[in-house]
């Protein structure tokens, strides 16, 4: 099957907001091309010695996204463009012209693998694609083997890293963890490798749940201490019963603000008193809306952390 590829010319400063907006419209698999150089810190994190010389950063960026030809109606594209043009109030989106081409499905599904290399999340955790090798791993370093397939969760995104930092800071060995929106399973896997007692990971996307199971096995987790379930804790009471809501010491959810807000409404009544809720996936323009929802639902704010344009709340029930 061939997909229709749309490429939008924009500015580097608008890239995060445009990606976020496309994600909210259900458009995933976004590709970004720009000349922003990696920071020295980022270079140290990567296991890449020689990077191609792209020339000076000119502030321009190309954002490509893909649409199944059967869904590619004029009104779909118009809706996407309207949302993107609406961002002009917040950020300089540049000329925002769009071009259309076609690509093979296989390319889109697998091309990114060429560019995803082992990297350090911090001094103690390395994420390693299952098809790569890493030599000379420093003693005491956790190596997490991952193949996210089509699901989210390579560990490269700001929001995943914000969650990992908070998990490392607050997780206790006796904790039972609930990971809502597990994607590749990365947060559950790291928590279990750090010594968490039990974990339940959920996602509404069955492909994500399958990938998370395979990744958990690939990291030799004790599968009797963790489970992976497909469903929605926000709207499905029966699923909440299966998940045993109310039993957890820590809940993590790296999902968009528009999901964190309704989640905060149902979650607290299902949490142990004093249990922690770590959320991210929140773009900075939605920070206040999420803060308000958390406070209205009785959470006490423990810490708010930031990376790029992304926010993470750690709160207590
Ligand atoms: C941004 S990804 C996070 C993946 C991974 N936890 C990470 O931190 O990298 C968000 C995930 O949440 C899932 N999701 C979206 N809405 C959800 C909901 N209402 N309940 C559970 N999962 C949901 C998506 O399918 C996606 O896999």
Automatic annotation (TrEMBL):
<dbReference type="GO" id="GO:0032259">
    <property type="term" value="P:methylation"/>
</dbReference>
<dbReference type="InterPro" id="IPR050078">
    <property type="entry name" value="Ribosomal_L11_MeTrfase_PrmA"/>
</dbReference>
<keyword id="KW-0808">Transferase</keyword>
<keyword id="KW-0489">Methyltransferase</keyword>
<protein>
    <recommendedName>
        <fullName>Ribosomal protein L11 methyltransferase</fullName>
        <ecNumber>2.1.1.-</ecNumber>
    </recommendedName>
</protein>
<keyword id="KW-0949">S-adenosyl-L-methionine</keyword>
<comment type="function">
    <text>Methylates ribosomal protein L11.</text>
</comment>
<dbReference type="GO" id="GO:0005840">
    <property type="term" value="C:ribosome"/>
</dbReference>
<feature type="binding site">
    <location>
        <position position="160"/>
    </location>
    <ligand>
        <name>S-adenosyl-L-methionine</name>
    </ligand>
</feature>
<feature type="binding site">
    <location>
        <position position="254"/>
    </location>
    <ligand>
        <name>S-adenosyl-L-methionine</name>
    </ligand>
</feature>
<dbReference type="Pfam" id="PF06325">
    <property type="entry name" value="PrmA"/>
</dbReference>
<dbReference type="GO" id="GO:0005737">
    <property type="term" value="C:cytoplasm"/>
</dbReference>
<feature type="binding site">
    <location>
        <position position="181"/>
    </location>
    <ligand>
        <name>S-adenosyl-L-methionine</name>
    </ligand>
</feature>
<feature type="binding site">
    <location>
        <position position="203"/>
    </location>
    <ligand>
        <name>S-adenosyl-L-methionine</name>
    </ligand>
</feature>
<dbReference type="InterPro" id="IPR029063">
    <property type="entry name" value="SAM-dependent_MTases_sf"/>
</dbReference>
<keyword id="KW-0687">Ribonucleoprotein</keyword>
<comment type="similarity">
    <text>Belongs to the methyltransferase superfamily. PrmA family.</text>
</comment>
<keyword id="KW-0963">Cytoplasm</keyword>
<dbReference type="InterPro" id="IPR004498">
    <property type="entry name" value="Ribosomal_PrmA_MeTrfase"/>
</dbReference>
<dbReference type="GO" id="GO:0008276">
    <property type="term" value="F:protein methyltransferase activity"/>
</dbReference>
<keyword id="KW-0689">Ribosomal protein</keyword>
